[in-house]
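The protein record quoted in full:
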Amino acid sequence: MRNFFIATAVSLLALVQPARADTYPARPVRLVVTAPPGGTADFLARVVADRMSRELKQTVVIDNRAGASGMLGADLVAKAVPDGYTVLLTEGASLAINASTRKDLPFNPQQDLLPLSLLASTPSILVANPAFAANNVRELVAKAKAAPGSIAYASPGVGTPHHLAGAMLSKMAGIQMNHVPYKGGGAMITDVVSGQVPILFTGVLGPLPFLKTGKLKALAIGSRQRSPLLPDVPTVAEAGYPDFEAEVFFGMFLPAKVPAEVTATLSRVIAQTMADPEVRRKLEEQALVVVGSTPDQLRVHFRKETDKWGEIIRSSGVVLE
């Protein structure tokens, strides 16, 4: 009888042990995406999940959990069982912005999420109606200084990286621009094309067809380097603001306390996934710059982004409510 109880205890202990690298994954992995179906984050998730499924020999199931600027899905993952079977894919800049500004978050992004990989990024782009009387950042700044408060810029919404890109440029250049927030990209781009709003900060992909047909013109790219899709468009840094950098990045995170062996397995699989030529081709066609970083590289980048956006918000007086 004593041996029976010992055997039972050992069996129960095995059931509650965290996932091990030699048995992981033994069932499908859930990839929580903090965006609705469609759009860049969802596209990225589906391309990555398909390739990861082959590497893991288990299905990676997409679970779209949009809402609260990505915090709904992030909170779900932060509070999930730390066994490696629940993974977060999120627009990391928004997570960093919320981490640096919101005091009511139901979790602590720095403590409750374990960085896994910076998958990819895409720069903000500053575009304008063709009739707008500035063709680059220097001319825009000169126009804004000549008539303070006369220029409005659109963005996909309050508190988005694109909104704060405008605030960053205003602060660095010593100008005042009026922010016009939109919910989504369609109406926003239409209004800039029609001249209702003169300029716009957004991602590269949305305005790209309008740039090719001349219905919009590009003033600058927000990344440190020029975009391969628009190699003739200068960066904001080239206009005399070397510290300007505004990108949207997409990162993968795990719940804190996932075993190191499982994290290492996922990190290896993601590195293989992001190095796959077909994966890279599909993502680059969507204006994404493929990265596929280590966990430590994402940790450093996330900390840097949190500090950067927090400082912009505090110093420029941006109101996010």
Notes: The radius of gyration is 22 Å. The first strand starts at residue 29 and ends at 33. The domain at 123-246 is CATH 3.40.190.10 (D-Maltodextrin-Binding Protein; domain 2).
